[in-house]
């Protein structure tokens, strides 16, 4: 099991996102992301599984805010997941899907050294 971490760059968005854990498993990806938006800091966790269309998706995940009592959900689609030859880095590209809007993202995550 490999765990990757790092900042995620989001196109044209007014929120920040970080991969606290991006875990590569045999047929799925476990994610634990944190970020902040106009409602404050949030965490989002879930499992991305392969869709019939070939991409991986973690659907309808609950955003858990530290200082906001409202509820909201987002889906995270992964279009590209590539490991470097040495498996020290993992490049991801996809989209954050929330309230009918899509924000494309990309990141070069680093392997967590244990």
Short description:
The chain is mainly beta and 114 residues long. It contains no helices and eight strands. An eight-stranded antiparallel beta barrel has the order 1-2-3-4-5-6-7-8.
Plain-language structure description:
The protein is mainly β and 114 residues long. The chain has one domain: Beta Barrel (Lipocalin). The chain contains no helices and eight strands. The protein has strands spanning 2-10, 16-24, 28-37, 40-50, 56-65, 72-83, 89-98, 101-111. It has an eight-stranded antiparallel barrel with strand order 1-2-3-4-5-6-7-8. A hairpin with a 3-residue loop joins β2 and β3 (28-37). The model has no long low-confidence stretch (mean pLDDT 94).
Mean pLDDT: 94
CATH second-level architecture = Beta Barrel
**Structurally, how many domains make up the residues?**
1
Q: What summary fits the major beta sheet?
A: 8 strands, antiparallel, barrel
Total number of β-strand segments?
8
Low-pLDDT runs of 5+ residues are none
Secondary structure elements and their pairing?
Layout: E1 2-10, E2 16-24, E3 28-37, E4 40-50, E5 56-65, E6 72-83, E7 89-98, E8 101-111
Antiparallel strand pairs: 1-2, 1-8, 2-3, 3-4, 4-5, 5-6, 6-7, 7-8
């Amino acid at each position: 099991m490999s765990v990757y971490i790092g900042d995620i760059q989001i196109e044209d968005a007014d929120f920040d996102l970080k991969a606290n854990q991006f875990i590569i498993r045999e047929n799925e990806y476990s994610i634990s992301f944190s970020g902040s938006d106009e409602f404050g800091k949030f965490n989002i966790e879930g499992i991305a599984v392969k869709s019939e269309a070939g991409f991986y998706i973690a659907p309808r995940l609950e955003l858990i805010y530290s200082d906001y009592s409202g509820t909201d959900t987002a889906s995270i689609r992964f279009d590209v997941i590539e490991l470097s030859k040495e498996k020290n880095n993992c490049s991801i590209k996809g989209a954050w899907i929330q309230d009918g809007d899509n924000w494309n993202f990309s990141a070069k995550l680093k392997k967590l050294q244990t």
